[in-house]
Amino acid sequence: MINTRLAIGIHILAFVECVPEKDTLNSEIVAESIGTNPVVVRRMSSALKKAGLLKSISIKKGLMLAKKPENITLYEILKAVDPSNELFVVHQKVNPQCTYGQSIVKVIESEFRTVQAELEGNLKKKTLHDLMKKVVTHS
After folding, report:
1. Rounded to 5 degrees, what angle do the CA atoms 39, 42, 46 make?
2. Which of 74, 92, 107, 133 is the most buried (most CB within 10 A)?
3. What percent of the chain shows pLDDT beyond 70?
4. Average pLDDT across the chain, whole number
């Protein structure tokens, strides 16, 4: 299912990298940038930490990247924040007596697996750094 977890994960990591005051950076500050609840940021940050993409600065509980942005692929971020991500899900209650229904579901599932694989392949080629280079800030 399409959701916002990947976008939020990317936003967290990019924001952490760009903010100079990493030692005082907390979930409230990151949540304000994203426009979400700090609980969401804490949950996502925890997943990013488990994946080795984000780490805490122990002195003041700040945040920093665990790897350089050019070494973090969008696929890694996706797998950290949404490990069972499926872009598309096929309806499951097809009439077992309908041969057409049974056949079309198999065709749809095959196509969806192909699209999912292509998406993941593209995400493996793009890095956090690639996206960060495109960000323009206005003062």
Report:
1. 145
2. 74
3. 94
4. 90
Residue 139 has pLDDT above 60, yes or no: no
Closest to 7 in 3D by CA, of 33, 39, 27: 33
Q: Residue 12 carries which side chain, given as an amino acid letter?
A: I
**Rounded to an integer, what distance in angstroms lies between the CA atom of residue 63 and that of residue 135?**
20
Distance of CA 46 to the CA centre of its chain: 13
CB 89 within 8 A of CB 39: no
Q: What's the CA gap between 100 and 121, in Å, rounded?
A: 32
Q: Which are the contacts of 124, defined by CB distance < 8 A and separation ≥ 6?
A: 73, 74, 75
Beta strands in 6-139 (DSSP E): 54-57, 62-65
Q: What share of the chain is helix, strand, coil (3-state, %, to 5)?
A: 60, 5, 35
Give the pTM: 0.86
Q: How many CB atoms lie within 10 A of CB 105?
A: 15
Asked if 77 contacts 52 with a C-beta cutoff of 8 angstroms, the reply is no
Label residues 64-87 b or e (16+ Cβ within 10 Å = b): ebbeebeebbbbbbbbbbbeebee
